[in-house]
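2024-03-11 09:14:02 INFO worker-7 job=invfold-0412 stage=load source=structure_tokens
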């Protein structure tokens, strides 16, 4: 979906930023999404997945809402520490860590870690008196385009034997966790996986293994990327149904990333070059796949665009990023306004896995970030491409 708007109205966006490319973070939107997901998942402790966007103002916004944090490295812990966030509000959920990472995280005061295999358990033995561990299980959501259960997660049938080994090693596994995959279309797999974990908890008790007292249902809560807000209330309904079967002694956690961070930022770009080539007009923007838009390659994303132009001519066109690499392409359109130099392009819902993975390839810096209220979306001429 692309909105084409008069070039002069780009000032609504340009007034917000000092330069382009620039990401605009809106704390009110972030608070709104956090509130909506909290309401849709009552009695679940949300740990924001820092990996999806570690922008300090975003982390502060969530901290001020009373949120907790899911971290995957000591560098992420350091940012939270710097913001004055206590380690008791952090869980370290990376299933495979170096010894140095573990040592640093423990030194910072983080006490929850995740494993999905026995070799990872051995790494935690030196810290067994001061930490608790969750066992990550693998549940693949058929409707989540970004899989996170092939690379990580023990098969459910291996859980009891890993718990046995942990017990013999003096490591307290008190939780189960999973991530069904990012950008899930429904919460059916979250709900089924939670139900399976509850069954497993009973088997753990029957076997006389240390009690499981928490289940972390991971991330995977979606952003729509269409301008339509996600209805978290209905999305989470299958999870809420299973929540009614959770015994009082089991705490439920979740690790949302994208659902919170994506809608909280937009990306302001400019046309920095253009050329008519064999396959149509090429428009070169000042951000591309090596900047905030790697999700196009890694996650198959098509971000919603608004273009501000005074052009009234149309042509086939190709959008490209600013680097010399030919893979740095942002989309092809059979018919599109022929943009002019310095025309403005806004990409919406650009907060998730954008800034977090931006590189300095070609010596080109990632977008700068400002904290401002996002403008209301005026859609005067909406074209579908
Ligand atoms: C362990 C863990 N938790 C949470 C998340 C956040 O997932 P999402 O952004 O889909 O909510 C991820 C994403 O990679 C993850 O690996």
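2024-03-11 09:14:09 INFO worker-7 stage=emit residues=385
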């Amino acid at each position: 979906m692309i909105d084409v708007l008069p070039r002069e109205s780009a000032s609504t966006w340009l007034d917000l930023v000092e330069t382009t490319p620039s990401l605009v973070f809106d704390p009110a939107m972030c608070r709104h999404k956090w509130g909506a997901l909290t309401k849709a998942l009552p009695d679940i402790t949300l740990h924001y997945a820092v990996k999806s966007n570690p922008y300090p103002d975003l982390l502060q916004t969530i901290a001020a809402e009373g949120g907790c944090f899911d971290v995957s490295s000591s560098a992420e812990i350091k940012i939270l520490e710097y913001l004055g966030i206590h380690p008791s509000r952090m869980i370290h959920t990376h299933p495979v860590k170096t010894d140095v990472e573990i040592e640093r995280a423990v030194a910072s005061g983080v006490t929850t870690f995740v494993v999905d295999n026995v070799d990872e358990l051995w790494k935690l033995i030196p810290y067994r008196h001061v930490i608790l561990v969750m066992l990550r299980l693998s549940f693949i959501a058929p409707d989540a385009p970004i899989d996170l259960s092939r690379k990580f997660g023990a098969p459910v049938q291996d859980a009891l034997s890993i718990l046995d080994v942990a017990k013999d090693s003096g490591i307290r596994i008190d939780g189960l966790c999973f991530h069904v995959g990012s950008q899930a279309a429904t919460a059916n797999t979250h709900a089924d996986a939670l139900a399976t974990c509850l069954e497993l908890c009973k088997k753990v008790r029957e076997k006389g293994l240390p009690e499981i007292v928490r289940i972390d249902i991971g991330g995977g809560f979606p952003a729509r990327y269409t301008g339509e807000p996600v209805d978290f209330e209905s999305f989470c309904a299958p999870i809420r149904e299973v929540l009614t079967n959770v015994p009082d002694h089991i705490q439920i956690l979740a690790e949302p990333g994208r659902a919170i961070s994506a809608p909280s930022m937009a990306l302001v770009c400019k046309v920095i070059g253009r050329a008519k080539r064999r396959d149509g007009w090429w428009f070169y923007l000042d951000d591309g796949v090596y900047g905030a838009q790697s999700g196009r390659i890694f996650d198959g994303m098509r971000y919603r665009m608004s273009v501000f132009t005074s052009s009234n001519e149309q042509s086939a066109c190709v959008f490209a990023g600013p680097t010399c690499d030919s893979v740095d392409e942002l989309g092809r359109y059979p018919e599109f306004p022929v943009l002019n130099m310095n025309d403005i392009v806004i990409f919406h819902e650009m907060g998730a896995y954008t800034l977090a993975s931006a590189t300095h390839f070609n010596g080109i810096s990632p977008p700068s970030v400002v904290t401002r209220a996002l403008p209301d979306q005026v859609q005067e001429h909406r074209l579908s491409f």
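2024-03-11 09:14:09 INFO worker-7 stage=report msg="The chain has two domains: 2-23+265-383, 54-256."
2024-03-11 09:14:10 INFO worker-7 job finished
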